[in-house]
Design a protein that fits this description.
Blueprint (H helix, E strand, L loop, with lengths): L1 H25 L8 H5 L14 E8 L10 E2 L2 E2 L4 E4 L4 E5 L6 E6 L4 E8 L2 E6 L3 E6 L5 E6 L9 E3 L2 E6 L3 E6 L5 E6 L14 E3 L2 E5 L4 E6 L5 E6 L20 E3 L2 E5 L5 E5 L5 E5 L7 E3 L3 E5 L5 E5 L5 E5 L11 E3 L2 E5 L4 E6 L5 E6 L10 E3 L2 E5 L4 E7 L17
Parallel strand pairs: 2-7
Antiparallel strand pairs: 1-33, 3-4, 4-5, 5-6, 7-8, 8-9, 9-10, 11-12, 12-13, 13-14, 15-16, 16-17, 17-18, 19-20, 20-21, 21-22, 23-24, 24-25, 25-26, 27-28, 28-29, 29-30, 31-32, 32-33
Length: 409
């Protein structure tokens, strides 16, 4: 047991070191100190005029941190509770109002993704291929299966199914009731890929998943039959590095339209029924995007925060104050767009013009997952194992009565 445990630890450290080396290459940095290294230094933060009143409601420790492994752990919610998982195996349910713990389960697994939440079930995935379903009411384990591959994408729970995309390039769908595999889909992966995976999304009876070969695939949820495929990022170039085409970042759906992005490629709006590209922009992003009824929000590979009009992809604004700070996918919250960064800061930008309006800090650990918006609360998890909730304080209106005057007679 001692040998096995140490082997697993050393293997994780080796993979983390490998990822760091790849990240340096992807950012154009040099190990030999050329001038590009200075150009890609994180932008230093400057004081801002905070015009949005953001309050931290509560903060809780989940467990051990993840040593900057960029795992796919981010909070999930069902409207009544917030669920979060730690790298060392804890899954915890919280009251979103005050952060009070409702239940906690130790899965005895090294967790790397989740939780996915839906239909009374909480699903987490592990580094060693564990896929675990818990009862959302009390945390009791319902089933556990082995999928033989690490998962970095949040499992999707919908319509009696659990869909999970793993780093071996395979989408698998399981029964929510007993964990039996229903179907799986695999696409050929290129020789070199980024560390990361896009979580699948659902519209109607179809499931949509991005693959490391730059393709977005629509499949029937019932049996996995492919409905259509769209190429977001055609691999180009001579080297494996040039041909990186991963669809790894978060995707979004509004109505019957899908919004997705690829590394070395484009952001596109795609019709869910047909796979027709409605519009596209040559913007490369590995973090992904989010969308509301009006806009699409994304971050470029260099950390530029970008807002596009949802109807046609036209630029609304761009914000370059977070260059090379490794920002998370943006999320719309209240009247702001929020992103986290590698030092644990949350940055709030006006969704109207992109100007900074507030800044908060979750902790010293980086924020790598997309923040969760649940009602009037923003829930954020850092890789140091901290979960925190924020809200926007609305000034109270005070009504003053005019002084009474005696009527003249």
């Amino acid at each position: 047991m001692f040998v096995s445990s140490n082997f697993r630890y050393l293997h994780r450290v080796f993979r983390a070191a490998t990822f760091v080396m790849c990240a340096l290459l992807l950012n154009g940095c040099s190990l030999f100190g050329d001038e590009e290294e200075e150009d890609n230094q994180p932008t230093e933060l400057v004081d801002i005029d905070e015009t949005l009143n953001v309050d931290q409601l509560w903060s809780q420790k989940l467990g051990k941190g993840t040593e900057a492994l960029r795992v796919g752990l981010s909070p999930g919610g069902d409207g009544n509770r917030v669920y979060a998982a730690s790298h060392d195996g804890n899954v915890i349910a919280f009251n979103p109002e005050n952060g009070k713990q409702v239940w906690q389960v130790e899965t005895e697994a090294v967790l790397s993704a989740g939780p996915g939440v839906g239909e009374g079930v909480v699903v987490v995935a592990g580094y060693d291929g564990d896929l675990i379903a818990l009862n959302a009411a009390d945390g009791v384990e319902i089933w556990r299966v082995q999928i033989t591959s690490e998962t970095l994408a949040t499992p999707l729970v919908s319509d009696g199914n659990v869909a999970v995309y793993s780093i071996d390039g395979r989408l698998r769908v399981y029964s929510i009731f007993d964990g039996a595999e229903i179907w799986s889909l695999e696409q050929t992966s290129p020789a070199l890929t980024q560390r990361g995976s896009a979580s699948p999304i659902m519209i109607g009876t179809s499931i949509f998943s991005g693959f490391d070969n730059g393709r977005l695939v629509a499949s029937k949820l019932s049996d996995g039959t492919t409905v259509w495929e769209a190429v977001l990022t055609p691999p180009t170039g001579r080297s494996d590095l040039d041909r990186l085409a991963d669809v790894d970042g978060s995707m979004a759906a509004v109505g019957q339209d899908i919004y997705a992005s690829g590394y070395n490629g484009r952001i596109a709006s795609i019709a869910a029924e047909s796979g027709e590209v409605l519009w596209d922009r040559e913007i490369s992003t590995h973090a992904g995007l989010s969308a509301d009824w009006n806009n699409v929000y994304a971050v470029g590979n260099d950390g530029e925060v970008i807002a596009l009009l949802r109807r046609n992809g036209t630029d609304l604004w761009r914000q370059d104050s977070l260059l090379f700070r490794d920002p998370t996918p943006p999320v719309a919250f209240n009247t702001a767009v929020v992103v986290g960064d590698f030092e644990g800061y949350l940055h709030f930008f006006s969704n109207f013009d992109g100007q900074p309006v507030a800044r908060e800090r979750v902790g010293k650990g980086m924020i790598s997952g997309i923040p969760l918006v649940m009602g009037d609360k923003l829930i954020v998890q850092s890789e140091s194992g901290t979960l925190a909730a924020f809200t926007v304080r609305t000034p109270k209106l005070t009504i003053t009565e005019s002084p009474e005057t005696d009527e003249e007679t």
